[in-house]
Design a protein that fits this description.
single chain; alpha+beta; two-stranded antiparallel sheet
Length: 278
């Protein structure tokens, strides 16, 4: 595999590979740090049928001027091969984001949402949920009364907000913190979406405590933060837990990697903890 990656990198860049190291933080792709300067991504197939490499390329082009993500050197919209500049001097958080890091995330989400950038496709969470769900056995479905209730409440929220450009997958591995900010990387799922979705994603995927959530949302909304907004974000989080429970089982079926079963189990425990009610 290493020789294959070296040959591919030379073919695409005309640069020799002096060093190569696999980056192990991704689940759905293979990533390699090359010459301590570039990251080469190779997609793992079979792929999530709800995503499009063509859309991902369009997203990167649209947001490039914001300097909020990795700089793309090469992108193949047919097979998802991507080469980007390695972002030096970055780090992940350890157990939980610091107050400073939470502020950086709030500021960057706000900057992106206020940019006015648009792309001609939308993240349809409910449609994605149905695609993932139909690919797994019915005996793994969660309580259907609860699921329908969450979807209804989520769709009511969707009607209340204009769409904005969104990352839609703010897991720990997609947050690269610098000494004075943060970059959001890996935009396979990025698109137009409800503005609450990224806020809920950061809270949910990074397991923020109640105190951290309130701090984060206060930083984002300022004086406009209120109980109604918090309730709406809680519903979006519930929808995401269901969505990514089915997503993880779908990925497990495709790739047979235990990490996806672990994610599904974690999401299921969170869903159960809600008591299946509002």
């Amino acid at each position: 595999m290493e020789k294959e990656i070296k040959d591919l990198f030379f073919e695409l860049t005309n640069k020799q590979v002096r060093s190569i190291e696999e980056i192990t933080t991704g689940f759905c792709n293979k990533n390699y740090l090359i010459n301590n300067a570039y990251v080469l991504r190779k997609a793992i197939f079979p792929r999530d049928e709800t995503i499009s490499f063509e859309n991902e390329e369009m997203i990167h082009q649209a947001i490039e001027k914001l300097n909020c993500s990795e700089k793309i050197v090469y992108f193949n919209k047919e097979d998802g091969t991507k080469i980007s500049k390695f972002i030096h001097g970055t780090r992940f958080y350890y157990n939980t984001p610091t107050i400073e890091q939470i502020v950086y995330v709030a500021k960057l989400i706000k900057k992106i949402q206020k940019s006015g950038i648009e792309v001609p496709f939308k993240y349809d969470a409910v449609s994605k949920l149905q695609v993932y769900k139909k690919n797994i056995p019915e005996d793994l479905y969660i309580n259907q009364t609860y699921e329908r209730q969450v979807i209804r409440e989520y769709q009511k929220i969707e009607e209340k907000y204009p769409l904005v450009i969104s990352h839609n997958d703010l897991v720990k591995g997609n947050l690269l913190f610098k000494f004075n900010g943060v970059s959001f990387i890996d935009r396979e799922y990025a698109s137009m979406n409800n503005p609450l979705f990224d806020l809920a994603s950061f809270i949910s995927e990074n397991n923020l405590s109640n105190e951290q959530q309130d701090f984060f949302l206060n930083k984002f909304f300022g004086s406009k933060y209120n109980n109604m907004t918090k309730k709406r974000i809680d519903i979006v989080i519930k929808l995401q837990d269901i969505l990514f429970y089915y997503w993880a089982l779908y990925q497990f079926k495709l790739k047979h990697q235990d990490i996806f079963k672990k994610i599904a189990d974690e999401k299921y425990e969170r869903i159960k903890s809600t008591g299946y009610s509002f």
